[in-house]
Amino acid sequence: MELHRVLKPTGSLYLHCDPTASHYLKILLDAVFGAKNFRNEIVWQRSTGKSLMSKRLPNNHDILLVVQKSDDATWNESAIYIPYDENDLPAKTAAKYSKRDPDGRRYQLDNLINPNSNRPNLTYEFLGVTRVWRWTKERMQKAYEEGMVVQPAPGRVPRFKRYLDEQSGLPLSDVWTDIPPINSQAQERLGYPTQKPVALLERILAASSNEGDVVLDPFCGCGTTVHAAQKLNREWIGIDITHLAIGLIETRLYDAFGEDAEFKVHGVPQDIAGAQDFFDRDDRTKKEFEKWAVRLIKAYSQSGGKKGADGGIDGIFRFGRDKEHKAIVSVKGGKNLGVAMIRDLDAVVTEQKAQIGIFLTLHKPTKPMIEWAKGAGTFEVEGFDPVPRLQIVTIEAALKDGPRTVDTPLRHGSPYKKAAKEQDTTAQGRLDI
């Protein structure tokens, strides 16, 4: 009901679920949006059948339920086509576009005769044939000179060369089998259990929104929707309740778009006093504190609790030309700091075959800690100055300067476009999506 309230008349809602819940949720959507505003049940094949089942068939698809706020909802027909793959054309398409230019371009000869026989201004003789044509004589002559109008034989009706690579492609249906899921080898994989492929969200946003529109994902998880919105030049709002999710999204955007990805995070500490309060609340927040802290330098939280010589690796990020190098992050929020913590981090960096270790601390490090870090050597990426192998970074500095407090070359990929600016609420205290 809240999503219906904030949705613009031009907006759409896509609800992603599995088949065990889709029929219940369809009834709820009908109740909130009205059955007349239901548009599609899209089946997305997310995997292949894994094995023969003794009592039922294997589950290999998810459901996308699509509703629109009104008949004025945005719908971009140009976005609902799949480009042709000339190496895997449907049989009918291959037969239709069977002719080829000397350069290999596929084409068919299409009709140039006007279906309306009563068009005196388009009735004329061309190449010895008089007909009611689709085009004016001037346009016909120009196309002929450019080689786009062909007469198969003297006296035959001229025809137009229509190229396959200029066509929209195959129209989408409500069954999507061409977008693979995130597998264990996928380059975009973040380890988040419900991660969706960016291509899936790009298709949705391209079909139902335009550049500059606002996209809301109220359960944004690892941020695939906001990543796609950023890439397609939409403004966006993402909501989640865990620091793990928020940290993943921040790091993901930084890795993909660099510091051009401008956004504001609400509901997290904004200064050192807030950070100290977060740490001091109770023991249950310590892990949440660590997840929050690693996001300050745009590292990925290690929520699984990987063990090392220091009792745990709190974060990891990669750097280098092909992201071949690894940095390990250790977070300490307590006041009792000692050189043993830096020695432990040194051992973990060696054990994990990492190149750099980052010690992220809420309080100032001791002099022996600083001296050990200085003596731990450097690491060099070819073409760049050597950087310290062990780096001590205070949370106060990270709050101020973010990932720039960490000295690592080639940290993120090439930026795409500017991110969305934060939007103000309306006079009614609401934001239209």
Description of the structure:
Helix content is 26%, strand content 20%. Mean pLDDT is 87; it is low at 304-310 and 413-433. 30% of the residues are buried. The protein is α+β, with helices and mostly antiparallel strands. The chain has three domains: 2-80 and 172-260, Vaccinia Virus protein VP39 (Rossmann fold), CATH 3.40.50.150; 91-166, no CATH class; 272-405, Trna Endonuclease, Chain: A, domain 1 (3-Layer(aba) Sandwich).
- Within CATH, the superfamily of the largest domain carries the name Vaccinia Virus protein VP39
Q: What is the structural class?
A: alpha+beta
Main CATH class of the largest domain: Alpha Beta
CATH topological fold name of the largest domain = Rossmann fold
Oligomeric state of this protein: single chain
Backbone CA Rg? 29 Å
Number of domains: 3
Task: Note the gap between the termini.
Answer: 14 Å
Please describe the biggest sheet, giving its number of strands, its sense, and whether it closes into a barrel. 5 strands, mixed
